[in-house]
Amino acid sequence: MMKSKHALKKLTPYQQGKQTEEVKREYGLDRIIKLASNENPFGYSDQVKNSLSLDHGLNTYPDGHTSELRNALAKKLNVEEDQIIFGGGSDELIQIISRAFLYPGVNTVMAAPTFPQYKHNATIEGATIKEIPTLDGYHDLKGMLQAIDENTSVVWLCTPNNPTGSLIPKEELYDFMNKCPKHVLVVLDEAYFEYVETEFDSKIIEHFSDFPNLISLRTFSKAYGLAGLRIGYGIANKELIAKLEVARGPFNTSSLAQKAALIALSDDEFIEETVQRNKAIRENLQQFLKDLGWHSYDSQTNFILITTPIDGEEMFNYLLERGYIVRPVKVLEDSNKIRVTIGSEEEMDIFKDLLQHLHSSVSKEIKS
Ligand SMILES: *Cc1c(COP(=O)(O)O)cnc(C)c1O
């Protein structure tokens, strides 16, 4: 027997959303709309498209320090350059944090449901996991505080939370940070930061001097539309960043990703348009669901968690056969939920028709 970590026996590899080509073949469809991974349906900045070329010395290693992007990002965020760490998506930063802070004997606190990679990585590192159920999609911060003890190493706060879409209110976040013991690292996963309306922005990164135990994670994968290039970043105090840097691979972000992110960062207009269109389409869908009488969770993101009148898996199959890929989601014992990425106007119009159709046939069944 080879001597791998025992935890690997408890885990399975990440199940990605169904791939488009696979579904086309299986169901004989010629168009597939993927609303399963919260990607940007509007693509990414034209400036990135126009200036990326493969003429950029792919034979040499990338700049392991990510200097140019680091400089631009530090200016934009108004932080010091040594307050930033880059990762191959924030996924890799979750892995780096887990590798640096989690081990057998410590515990880690997170919401349920939340982004599955926290639990996955914590399990690999052998830490004890404490999951605190959300309250209608919102983090139960009081419950999470109560779960913290002297052996707690990391608390994961996902805001807005994936898969529920709910944002941690500003006041609650500051209150939590003030009460949270300083020996606990708080990871604030802000993968959907750009989608959060300005009035709800906690501006917590302006307060790192008060909170040396805080790191915020952001990404170019969601609003920036660069999921395929794998680049994200963490912002924290420089002492914390220096610790995490030890656990980072020397060339963990590619030269193409660095270049694309640098250009994308300067195109505020693209982000603004993405965010505005997303909001209009999301609000339209929310109103539609309300009119149908279906429950959905509050969302400050580019996805919505919907409670469906049939089981989430059934709902998933119904939509799949009609060319829409979504995610069935379990919230504690409830499996009648799907998470749906906000697609383009046209994609969502057809999606609404499909829901309407299903709604009518389910209501008929109930009446007869
Ligand atoms: C998508 C997502 C990530 C991972 O994003 P990458 O930067 O592509 O690795 C992390 N956290 C949350 C909550 C996400 O939804």
TrEMBL record:
Its EC number is 2.6.1.9. CDD domains: AAT_like. InterPro entries: Aminotrans_II_pyridoxalP_BS (IPR001917), Aminotransferase_I/II_large (IPR004839), HisP_aminotrans (IPR005861), HistidinolP_aminotransfase (IPR050106), PyrdxlP-dep_Trfase (IPR015424), PyrdxlP-dep_Trfase_major (IPR015421), PyrdxlP-dep_Trfase_small (IPR015422). It is an enzyme of class 2 (transferase). Residues 32-351 form the Aminotransferase class I/classII large domain. One of its GO terms (molecular function) is histidinol-phosphate transaminase activity. Signal peptide: none annotated. Residues 1-20 are annotated as: Disordered. The modification N6-(pyridoxal phosphate)lysine is found at K222. Its cofactor is pyridoxal 5'-phosphate. It comes from the Bacteria. It holds the Pfam family Aminotran_1_2. Keywords: Amino-acid biosynthesis, Aminotransferase, Histidine biosynthesis, Pyridoxal phosphate, Transferase. Pathway: Amino-acid biosynthesis; L-histidine biosynthesis; L-histidine from 5-phospho-alpha-D-ribose 1-diphosphate: step 7/9. It catalyses: L-histidinol phosphate + 2-oxoglutarate = 3-(imidazol-4-yl)-2-oxopropyl phosphate + L-glutamate. Homodimer. NCBIfam families: hisC. Belongs to the class-II pyridoxal-phosphate-dependent aminotransferase family. Histidinol-phosphate aminotransferase subfamily. This is Histidinol-phosphate aminotransferase.
